[in-house]
Amino acid sequence: MEGIEKNRFAARKKSLAFQKQKLIFVLFTLPPVLLYVAFFIYPTITGVYYSMTDWDGFSKKFNFIGLDNYITILKDSRFLNSISFTLYYTVLDVVLKLLIALFLAILLSGKVKWRGFMRSVYFFPAVLSLIAVGLIFNQIFYTVLPAIGEALDIEWLKDNLLADKSTAVYGIVFTNLWQGVAIPMVIFMAGLASVPQDLREAAIIDGAGPFQRFRSITLPFLIPMLNVNLIIAIKGAITVFDYIVAMTDGGPAQATESVGFLIYRHGLNEMKFGYGTAEAIYVFLLIAIISIVQIKLLNRKEAGQQ
Question: Taking the first listed entry, what is the main subcellular location of this protein, grouped into a coarse class (predicted)?
Fold first, then answer.
């Protein structure tokens, strides 16, 4: 009987310890779950609801109009033009940014003189405000470069790039590259540090060239970092806003009106909050589809996978 009582006491003690562990788990999990619901799930649900109304963002009365906003958007030439500009800008920005970031990461991961100082120099633009950088480059394109073009008699430098519909996008892309290369560069450098040194040495002994070593050894270890960089870069390019506001304000003649900027214009300037929210839902779906496809394609090439 005494042995049975001891076993019951031990079982009860174990059960209480397990329940206490579960309670601690719930208490630690509950705050982030509540924050996630409050700041993501609830705004998403209300956003979807408001996208199916004609709410102007301020009045208490509005009408439920179903999918009218979504149908109208697909026929809106201004929205379609902004999508065209945004996708073109995204391709330019993402491809150039990741190529430059990868080149700098490889360069600064090697034996370079003053490597620590050079890393700090290249990372410095990342700590600056996007609006501040946009305003600075706006003045550079408006006053500095034309003056240099006049002094050196270089025809294409004499005009402000941002004032021409055909070249304004390149000025914005250049500004983004100057500031935006730092973060993907650091992420790539972390990936390069994870490549086993013995694999590199074995490849050199086997006579593999630099390109072969990069393609067969380094690149597979960089796939997870490339995934992260692609998602961040694509999301940032599709939702570009600060540079547009600071440099062109959507001009000239709405030529640089990105989707993010158009949503802002419709929602806050033109008092079409429901319409702007529907546009934001389209952008969310676009980013989600691109990210899913990109992750599935790149995960097949990750190191250790067939």
Answer: membrane
Alpha carbon separation from 100 to 16, 84, 276 (Å, rounded) = 57, 24, 34
pTM of the model: 0.85
Single-letter code of the amino acid located at 199: L
> Which residue reads 């600071």 in tokens?
246
Q: Report the distance separating Cα 105 and Cα 98, nearest Å.
A: 10
What confidence category does residue 138 fall into, taking pLDDT thresholds of 50, 70 and 90? Answer: very high
Half-sphere exposure of 262 (CA within 13 A, CB side): 25
User: Over pLDDT 70: what percentage of the chain?
Assistant: 92
Q: At residue 253, what is the residue type?
A: A
3-state secondary structure the chain: CHHHHHHHHHHHHHHHHHHHHHHHHHHHHHHHHHHHHHHHHHHHHHHHHHCCECCCCCCCCCCECCCHHHHHHHHCHHHHHHHHHHHHHHHHHHHHHHHHHHHHHHHHHCCCCCHHHHHHHHHHHHHCCHHHHHHHHHHHHHHHHHHHHHHHCCHHHCCCHHHCCCCHHHHHHHHHHHHHCHHHHHHHHHHHHCCCHHHHHHHHHCCCCHHHHHHHHHHHHHHHHHHHHHHHHHHHHHCCCHHHHHHCCCCCCCCCCCHHHHHHHHHHHCCCHHHHHHHHHHHHHHHHHHHHHHHHHHHCCCCCCC
Least Cα distance to 55 among 256, 216, 231, 274 occurs for 274
Distance of CA 16 to the CA centre of its chain: 46
pLDDT band (50, 70, 90) for residue 256: very high
Tell me which of 109 and 238 has the higher pLDDT.
Answer: 238
- Prior bond to 184 cis, omega within 30? no
Q: Between residues 19 and 5, which one has the greater pLDDT?
A: 19
The CA-to-CA distance between both ends of the chain, in Å, stands at 60
- How many other β-carbons are positioned within 10 Å of the β-carbon of residue 165? 12
